[in-house]
Design brief:
Elements (H helix, E strand, L loop, with lengths): L4 E6 L4 H5 L9 H13 L4 H4 L1 E6 L7 H17 L3 E5 L5 H13 L2 E6 L18 H7 L3 E9 L8 H9 L3 E3 L1 H7 L1 H13 L4 E7 L21 H13 L3 E7 L10 H18 L7
Parallel strand pairs: 1-2, 1-3, 3-8, 4-5, 4-7, 5-6, 7-8
Helix pairs in contact: 2-11, 4-5, 5-6, 8-9, 9-10, 10-11
Bound molecules: manganese (II) ion (MN).
Length: 286
């Protein structure tokens, strides 16, 4: 059996955030997260169980499409090499490109997104913003609505038409109030079941703005509501354990607005938890 291998792919690119008039700065996220992650795992026993490789994409300035292509290629190569990719953004638009790679390899994919927002805005005048990734995946039929689950949506900024769009696509929305009512474990197992039904691989996304502002102030669009720190850490661990998850996208950490590094620290802990989960997979071929 080949050794369990994780590839951490940094994408320091936030042009898609600028295009939606968000607060730029997520391009500084990956470097800080990786630095903290390396400190965290220095003495962690998971280091003995796995190989962790690092690579950084060199974005094409102000060119979302070309940068996305680099990400798609990197994720495809990673999977071909037998490693499990984790993509660290950057703006959430990047998730389109990494999930696309999963589609190209596995053909039928599911997608789970933890986020305050729907991120199904249409591309207008060719502007691929950080609000568009899941609309693009659905429109290109890389992802079918029936295998798409959004968790934790609550922001009043979400438009009714985006809600209606997801319902029309037969996507599943598990809103924050509902998750807290049925419990996180139940909500996650429901999400994993829907995303993995008749699919060969599932992508797990965390937009850090799905976490309450007091735990994650450093993001492009913070909200006072959201997941707690405990909930999001547990989600990453459970996602790591799921055999069908073939990609983890960790997006929108913006160090420029961080307070005492807490968002960066949380992001690094999310990586550790997800990776720890992968070491507990029963059939560990990823
Ligand atoms: Mn998002």
């Amino acid at each position: 059996m080949t050794r369990h291998c994780i590839e951490l792919i940094s994408v320091p690119f936030d042009h898609g955030v600028k295009l939606i008039n968000g607060r730029p700065g997520a391009r500084f996220g990956p470097k800080k997260i990786i630095k903290t992650f390396q400190e965290l795992i220095r003495n962690n026993p998971i280091k003995n169980k796995i190989t962790i490789n690092f690579q950084t994409i060199k974005p094409i300035e102000c060119d979302v499409k070309s940068t996305h292509k680099l990400v798609t290629d990197a994720v495809r190569e990673t999977i071909k090499s037998g490693a499990l990719p984790i993509v660290i953004g950057g703006g959430h638009d990047i998730s389109f490109s990494s999930s696309k790679a999963i589609f190209l390899i596995y053909k039928r994919i599911g997608q789970i997104n933890i986020d305050a927002h729907y991120d199904v805005r249409p591309v207008v005048n060719g502007r691929i913003t950080s609000g568009t990734p899941f609309r693009r995946l659905l429109e290109k039929e890389f992802l079918l609505g029936k295998n798409f689950v959004e968790l934790g949506v609550h922001s009043p900024k979400n438009l009714k038409e985006h809600h209606a769009y997801i319902i029309k696509q037969k996507g599943t929305l598990l809103k924050l109030d509902h998750i807290n009512k049925i419990g996180l474990d139940n909500a996650l197992s429901k999400a994993f079941r829907i995303a993995s039904k008749d699919t060969n691989a599932t992508v797990f996304d965390i937009d850090i703005d799905g976490v309450q502002k007091r735990f994650a102030p450093g993001c492009s669009a913070p909200c006072s509501k959201g997941f707690t720190k405990k909930q999001i850490l547990k989600s990453a661990l459970i996602a790591g354990r799921d055999n069908n998850i073939r990609l983890f996208n960790l997006m929108e950490v913006n160090p420029l607005y961080d307070v005492n590094n807490k968002t960066v620290n949380l992001a690094a802990e999310l990586l550790v938890n997800f990776i720890k989960g992968t070491t507990e997979r029963k059939n560990n071929d990823h």
